Amino acid sequence: MKIIKTKIGRRSFIKTSALASGGLVVGFSWLASCNMSKEEVENLPKEWFEINGFLKIADNGMVTIMSPNPEIGQNVKTSMPMLVAEELDVDWNDVIVEQAPLNIDIFTRQLAGGSQSIRQGWESLRMAGATARCMLLEATAQEWEVPIGELSTNEGKIIHAGSNRSMGYGEIASAAAKIEAPEEVVLKDPKDFKIIGTSRKNVDGKKIVTGKPLFGLDYKEKGMIYAMMVHPPAFGMKLKSIDASEVKEMPGIRDVFEIETYPEDFEKSWVDVNAFSKLAVITGDSTWEVMQAKKKLKVEWELSKHITEQQIILDKTPDLSSTGGLESTKIHKSLMEQIGSDRAKVVRKDGDPEKAFKNAARIVERSYSCPFLAHNTMEPMNFFANVSDNKALLVGPVQTPEYMEQSVSKRLGIPLENVDIQMTRMGGGFGRRLYGHFLVEAALISQKVGAPVKLVYTREDDMTQGTYRPAYYATYKAALDANNNLTGFHVIAGGIPESPLAANRFPAGALENYLAEEWTIDSHVSVGAFRAPRSNFIAGAEQSFLDELAEELGKDPIEFRLELLKKAQENPVGENNDYEADRYAGVLELVREKSNWVKNDSGAHRGVAAYFCHNSYVAQVLEMTMKNNQPVIEKVHCAIDCGIVVNPDAATNLAQGGIVDGVGHALYSELTLKEGVPDQTNFDKYRLIRHGEAPKSIEVYFVENKIDPTGLGEPPFPPIMGALANALYKATGERHYHQPYMTSKQILG
Amino acid sequence: MANFKINVNGEQKELDVDPTTPMLWILRDHLNLVGTKYGCGIAQCGACTVHLGSTAVRSCQLPISSIGDQKITTIEGLSEEGDHPIQQAWLEHDVPQCGYCQAGQIMSASALLKKNPNPSDDQIDRAMNGNICRCGTYVRIKEAIKTAGKNSPVA
What we know:
heterodimer, A: alpha+beta, Aldehyde Oxidoreductase, domain 4, 3 domains, 19 helices, 29 strands, globular, B: alpha+beta, Ubiquitin-like (UB roll), DNA polymerase, domain 1, 5-stranded mixed beta sheet, 5 strands, 34% helix, 16% strand, 2Fe-2S-bd_dom_sf (chain B), 2Fe2S_fd_BS (chain B), (2Fe-2S)-binding protein (chain B), oxidoreductase (chain B)
């Protein structure tokens, strides 16, 4: 039991009600008109009563719960309302879920990113449900003239045991809506949970499998025209001029013009990442017609004048001086290998690592790297915008609506309160939709043409305009003494344009003599967060190195990690270690048990890895066999400690997906450049993992505890790259240091 | 521009469009059947999969001029009430994450089961390899196809 202060005052309630008749209804009339099944229409209640911004109760007892955060496939549209329903104490079958409007006065942190939705909504969503339940009880106590303490609830009913009376929430909802919200409420003890911790199906499942319009690309309005943009072919170039004469004559084409997403003096916030601001735009009557015109449009490009640190470095490189700073992957690689460590800065130092290396009997040194990756959400970037009369309505897929509202307002000079962003389901995010330049672009286009517009990126546009996962590089060194003790540890890591290092994470804290250094190299190529930023490289590198180190020391790789963690727990080095060693060890022990690691009776080649990020702990064992001289991934065991698991089957699905995603990117994917031009423009050359290459089975085990929930969308993704490399070594005898591990012709399975 | 009469989900549709227009955009822009998804435009991702007759095809590479009197079935027409064994199996296994590719996955899977109600793992992989799922739901898709195979009326 926990008592918390409520944050739903009278003021925010009134504000919500006002919104409910405005923005909310407009947004959902579209969804409702398209999506209602026969059964839903028949069971429609006559009247809804808004209890607070989070929920409405109908006269027939149905409950509508608003899901505040953007849905990118992490299933928050189901799991967040489950938290509200738990404390409200309703039958989940009576719950309808709606995507909430953007309203940060009511809903905290309406953002999909950093694996934080459940963690940060844990109290506020339960508070919303508990508050509503309190108001229902208060209204009933007044109506029945009994003390509120004599009332209890059970799955949508209020019960007065003394007089053997009961009443459905729907019967008292209209009175409850008039009750003042309580100042504090009691939250349930986790042992009393009825909904949290039980598996509930995806609330949009039926709509997804029947092809109902759910996604941004599906959104249409009357009079809407289609728009596409043309961006420079190479990073480091910009638009010079457009010759639209031929294209304007093409059927279905309305207009061709130039927009500037973010002018040079625009003060960008962190969500305003983009590579190309000046774009050529084509508008027309249908997607296909605009696509055809896009191929024919004549555009001249010129080198960008913007001088970066990268160019200064590149100018020293003879074979690049003639290209004016157009970057190639080949050069990036040699820069990372040669220049990186010269510019490294110390981030953390424990003990005397220099002395340890000077006195070492043996030094083990290995380097790891990974390429740029495109996010490649299956739904390409797109957005609907209707800008008129100093107002902007924007509808579509974006992970950061509350930030993009500000960017659109600032760029178009429209007051913030006149910018309305509505969230649709997203065909994937992975971090790409944190950066919403496409909202600004759609809004500028709509403003220019004076009509509702749908901006659509082709796959090629989506893949070649940047916002990539950075390219990273790391060198690990270990000092071993004559008795095979690990006496020193040194990591130097960096990347283009950011470092992947998390210097205070394991194995920091477990090593007496530890040195961590980092460096960066600037670039024209724009980058952004990609599922588990930085961890998505450094986990695999570190876990591969620890595997090789265990082998050098003649130790079992799990036992070796547990020894280090024991040291970190019992006698930690340094003060800023940002992990709990016992929970780290806990997932390793669980995966060791579940995978039958010690007995090893599967006959498979196995690799292990463990990592901590986004407040959660994950350990994985990957089992591989060789068939016809090709490695086949038979099974992955995955142990997770993310505190209380809200929706176990959906959580398992998310972890399975993260593992497939990690295996795929580590094995196959890369975005490479030649003189600023991406080599991969579509899925014919950009390899993503396919059905036959995925692990045959994935078992997920959750540590059971009563700790408040932590992240899950990202943590299962990074360590699998290490487990995979370590299993590949066992299966093939070859260590893999550089992603992607497979050459373009190799296949798995 | 040219006039076409096509059969989509059992209904006759008449359109006056550019003959090169792929069925993907006919469905999405002209017929308002947006369940069929755009993913790559070059038949590499499978998000746009529909049935031409009883065969799974990529509608992004299928110009309207090539249809003639062959019947097109989209995700919206796979079953009247959304209760095709494949759709039910998808719900039972709670397959989707983001959900964007799933209409294409379902259309490929239902075409497979029509020909082979009891496919092996290898047969599933071969039939489904053209459908990318960026969220990585492959393991569940395979399980759902097997469940649907068991629940399908014998062909």
